[in-house]
Amino acid sequence: MQSASSRTSGPSLVPTGWMLGVDWSVCDGRGWCVELLPELLVQDRWGYPLAQSDADRAAAARDGAPGTGRPAREIPVPDHLAPHARRAVETCPRLALRLRRAS
Fold first, then answer.
1. Which parts of the sequence are annotated with region: Disordered (predicted)?
2. Up-side HSE of residue 43: CA atoms within 13 Å toward CB?
3. Which of 18, 20, 23, 69 is most buried, judging by how many CB atoms fall within 10 Å of its CB?
4. What is the mean pLDDT of residues 41-49?
């Protein structure tokens, strides 16, 4: 029987390094961040940013899947996308984004 570590190959699917936070009370859904981080973010039907994983859960909710929950308050950002996330934070016209080191 193979161990779990021998079955996995390639890079880890769990992003680490940085967390991107969205202040939902300030964001007005202009979409700058989605354009700068299409690898991580998608827009909902009103233009607000969602993590790709939240978009998948939202689609499951539309299909009737239970327990889909609310969108993430913080979105994991891999190190190689940190420069793009910084640019999204710096260019957000509503200052609704923040980037912090993951603990």
1. 57-77
2. 14
3. 20
4. 89
Burial of 89 (0-12, 13-18, 19+ CB in 10 A): middle
pLDDT score recorded for residue 22: 93
Within a 13 Å sphere around the CA of 54, how many CA atoms are in the beta-carbon half?
A: 17
Which three-class secondary structure state does DSSP give residue 55?
helix
CA dihedral 50, 103, 79, 31 (to 10 degrees): 20
User: Apex CA 98: angle with CA 20 and CA 10, to 5°?
Assistant: 20
The model's pTM is 0.72
Q: Check pLDDT > 90 for residue 38.
A: yes
3 state SS of 59: helix
pLDDT at 93 over 50: yes
CB 36 within 8 A of CB 91: yes
- What the chain holds in terms of domains, given with CATH numbers, is 17-102 (3.30.70.20)
